[in-house]
Amino acid sequence: MANGNNEPKIYDALALPPQALDNGGAEILRAGIIDDELYVTARPSFHDPGKWGEVLAEIAKRVGAIYAAEGLNVDDATIQIAEAFAAEMGAQPVPARGGNKAKRSAKSRPARRSEKKSTAKRKKR
Fold first, then answer.
1. What are 22-81's pLDDT values in tens digits?
2. Which string of DSSP letters, residue by residue, matches 104-119?
3. What torsion, rounded to 10 degrees, do the Cα atoms 80, 16, 46, 37 define?
4. Positive or negative, the Cα torsion across 82, 85, 90, 95?
5. Is the CB of residue 92 less than 8 Å from the CB of residue 109?
6. Can you give the pTM of this predicted structure?
7. Rounded to the nearest 5°, which phi and psi values hold at 25?
8. In this structure, are residues 87 and 109 in contact, taking their beta carbons and an 8 Å threshold?
9. Over the stretch 97-113, which tens digit does the pLDDT of each residue have?
């Protein structure tokens, strides 16, 4: 190996759920972190790609429950996941209840990825 380390590299894969071993099924999504980068393999399992939104929401709820088993509040964990997902997708932040409800202007909110790209293109011209 280039780094001089002769130890084999290990990928820490999750075990299959017992129900899969008992009943069969199909894996539709696998995600892993390798060298701090996300890698995803997925099947286009649904005729309507919008169905993935339902699947991702259910995954968020179940991951929130996993964090709850580690001592966090399930609602808080799930909300944190949902808020991070929405922000990554470019949604506007929702003010906390009872907080400042003034809408943020386009200048004060973070640029969406598509806006960042278009701004970069304009600068090159």
1. 999 999 999 999 999 999 999 999 999 999 999 999 999 999 999 999 999 999 999 999
2. PPTTTSPPPHHHHHHH
3. 50
4. positive
5. yes
6. 0.65
7. 145, -165
8. no
9. 664 444 443 443 444 44
